Each structure stands twice: as C-alpha cells, then as structure tokens.
UniProtKB/TrEMBL annotation:
Residues 15-138 form the Fe-S metabolism associated domain. InterPro entries: Fe-S_metab-assoc_dom. It comes from the Bacteria. Coiled coil: none annotated. Pfam families: SufE. Belongs to the SufE family. PANTHER family: SUFE-LIKE PROTEIN 2, CHLOROPLASTIC, SULFUR ACCEPTOR PROTEIN CSDE. This is Cysteine desufuration protein SufE.
Length: 144
C-alpha cells in the first residue's frame, strides 16, 4: 500500500480502510457520510459550484486555492445518497488543510486503494473517482 503520495490525513483514512476486515468496510464508509460540513450560505443554491454528472445522485463541489496554496473544498449531496456523501466526507476530512500540490498528487485510484471495490458497486466507484477528478481539475485550473 503506497500512501506516501497522499496528504497525511487522507493516507491514514486509506490505511484504515485497506487494513479493515471486509465485513466492516461498508459500515466504515457510511460513517463518513456525516463528515460533510454544511455549505456556507453563499453556496446554498449551488451558486459557483460544479455538478458531477457521473454521480447517480445530484452532487456538487467547489474547490478554492487560497493565497497560501492550501485548498478549501465544499461538497453537497443529499443525505439520501449515503455512499456518495461518504466519498465527499472522506475527501473533506482527508484533504482538510492540504495544499494544492498535495491534492493534485492524490492517486486517481484512491477508492481502489481503500479496498472499496469489494464493498460497493463499480458505478459508485466511478462516481467517487469523478468527484476526485473534478476536484483536482478545479485546483489545477486555479494553480496554473
């Protein structure tokens, strides 16, 4: 398991999932659905947020690279989609305080490294991968 190419908080989450028994991985994943912070008032109508159409449910995100090169991210997904919300929770918690460079280096196969392929459908993995990809694209556009 190579986690040296990830921000420390995210690496810890990945290691916990990768080393967990298969029968608790889904339960662990769903715990992250509560880790999504509420949107600030100015984003409440998804103004300035990007929709991720690869997700089966409505999912919106926004990343802002700060002057100190750290990234602030916002995610919005309905509570009725706990698996998708869990992806957002993992990214919100794992990438908090990370720099643009650190986030851009996160491997695209993040969810496979976590061992989620045995716990959830390929369609959900594809949605989670699209969330990460769009987040990285937004950061790359602001960093160039």
């Amino acid at each position: 398991m190579f986690v040296s190419d990830m921000p420390p908080k995210l690496a810890q989450i990945v290691e916990e999932f990768a080393s967990a028994p298969r029968d608790v991985v889904l339960e662990m994943l769903l715990e992250f659905s509560d880790a999504v912070p509420p949107l600030p008032a100015e984003l409440a109508g998804h103004e300035g947020m990007e929709q991720v159409p690869e997700c089966q449910t409505q999912f919106f995100l926004r990343a802002e690279v700060q002057p100190d090169a750290t990234v602030v991210s916002w995610f919005d997904c309905p509570p009725e989609a706990p698996t998708t919300r869990a992806f957002a929770g993992i990214l919100a918690e794992g990438l908090a305080g990370a720099s643009a460079t650190e986030i851009l280096a996160v491997p695209d196969d993040l969810y496979a490294r976590m061992g989620l392929g045995q716990a959830i459908s390929p369609l959900r993995i594809r949605g989670g991968t699209a969330i990460l990809g769009r987040l990285k694209r937004q950061i790359a556009e602001q960093s160039s």
